[in-house]
Amino acid sequence: MYAKLKRQNRIKEIIHEYEITSQEQLVKMLNDESIVITQATLSRDFAELGVIRVSTENGIRYVLNTEEAGLKISRLIGFEILSVVNNESMVVIRTLAGRAQGVAHYIDRLNVEEILGTVAGDDTVLIIPNKQEKVSKVVSIIKKIMMEIS
Predict the structure, then answer these.
(1) Which distant-in-sequence residues (6+ apart) come within 8 Å of 72 by Cβ?
(2) pTM value?
């Protein structure tokens, strides 16, 4: 699993840094970096990462479909959240071990008006709502993320 994650991260980096015009070009670049990959595996990686072909003024190139990538990230974050509880003023999320900072970062980047910010430990995220009355709305937002696993 680690090799796949490493490979897919490198694919994203290369697509972001270079104008990739063919799968063959990317396979060669990865092979040159000692990341052995077949075109069939690359096609599967593209599907999982949400890589699409777009037409630019310079011709066809591969890019990350940010909308699709966002859905994939949301599904991953939903998987990493184990539970959400709250009291009258705060929301606490329990995550898989070591994943609280990633979950907190994702929540911060949602830029939701009802959330002032987050504080993350190893497996716990504290969410501070902007108003006490918004605690239930924040819990609903987190539960929606949890439901996007499928």
Answers:
(1) 48, 49, 50
(2) 0.56
